[in-house]
């Protein structure tokens, strides 16, 4: 009887782990999803050493609506999977599909890594995915990158996301297919 009870408890535990993982994972790309982002990011921020910086990039696939409208949503989903796989190789601590065609990357940085992801558009140009409904004739991405150099006062995730979001809009307004990096003022504490 004890063996059967132990066996049932193990099965229940495995089922609960599976459901938790499923709730934290984007089904299409296999990346973490927005639901798990805050928890993972807070844990990473809490582990930062005083000499480390935090980089957060918000990445948006350019002209993705045109892609879906002309190639179909199934082909659009395939592109999202390819983009996700490329982003998984960007040396980030956290890689998240934030929603739709938006992705978030977060990385603990050293002082010599402050140019992290500036080459992101080139990574997509080196192995292009055709997109004839884009002025670039290929899939491109725009990125807003924020780097927190403040080792005394760490900004909130909300303010990092807001700054990165502004960077994405700057990149879009500058013609797309670029990365724009902003730095958090190391002298100013954040007030929430």
Automatic annotation (TrEMBL):
Sorted alphabetically, which Gene3D superfamilies does this protein's record hold?
3.30.70.270
* CDD domains named in the record: GGDEF
Q: Which UniProt keywords apply?
A: Nucleotidyltransferase, Transferase
**What InterPro entries does this protein's entry cite?**
Diguanylate_Cyclase (IPR050469), GGDEF_dom (IPR000160), Nucleotide_cyclase (IPR029787), Rev_trsase/Diguanyl_cyclase (IPR043128)
Supply the EC number(s).
Answer: 2.7.7.65
State the name under which the record lists this protein: diguanylate cyclase
Catalysed reactions, as listed in the record: 2 GTP = 3',3'-c-di-GMP + 2 diphosphate
- Please give the NCBIfam families that the UniProt record associates with this protein: GGDEF
Give the enzyme's main class according to its UniProt record, as a single word.
Answer: transferase
Source species: Pseudoalteromonas haloplanktis
Q: Which PANTHER family match?
A: DIGUANYLATE CYCLASE DGCM-RELATED, REGULATORY COMPONENTS OF SENSORY TRANSDUCTION SYSTEM
Q: Name one GO cellular component term.
A: plasma membrane
What positions does the domain GGDEF occupy? Answer: 52-183
Q: Reply yes or no: does the keyword Nucleotidyltransferase apply.
A: yes
One molecular function GO term is: diguanylate cyclase activity
Keyword Disulfide bond on this protein? no
Output one GO BP term.
negative regulation of bacterial-type flagellum-dependent cell motility
């Amino acid at each position: 009887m004890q063996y059967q009870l132990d066996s049932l408890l193990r099965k229940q535990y495995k089922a609960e782990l599976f459901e938790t993982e499923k709730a934290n994972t984007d089904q299409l790309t296999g990346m973490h999803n927005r639901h798990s982002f805050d928890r993972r990011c807070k844990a990473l921020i809490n582990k930062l050493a005083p000499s480390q910086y935090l980089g957060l990039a918000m990445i948006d696939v350019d002209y993705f609506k045109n892609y879906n409208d002309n190639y179909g949503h199934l082909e659009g989903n395939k592109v999202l999977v390819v983009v996700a796989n490329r982003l998984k190789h960007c040396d980030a601590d956290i890689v998240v599909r934030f929603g739709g065609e938006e992705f978030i990357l977060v990385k603990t940085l050293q002082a010599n890594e402050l140019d992290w992801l500036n080459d992101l558009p080139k990574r997509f140009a080196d192995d292009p995915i055709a997109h004839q409904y884009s002025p670039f004739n290929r899939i491109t991405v725009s990125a807003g990158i924020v780097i927190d150099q403040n080792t005394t006062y760490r900004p909130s995730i909300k303010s990092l996301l807001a700054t990165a979001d502004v960077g994405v809009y700057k990149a879009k307004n500058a013609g797309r297919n670029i990365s724009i990096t902003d730095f958090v003022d190391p002298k100013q504490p954040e007030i929430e």
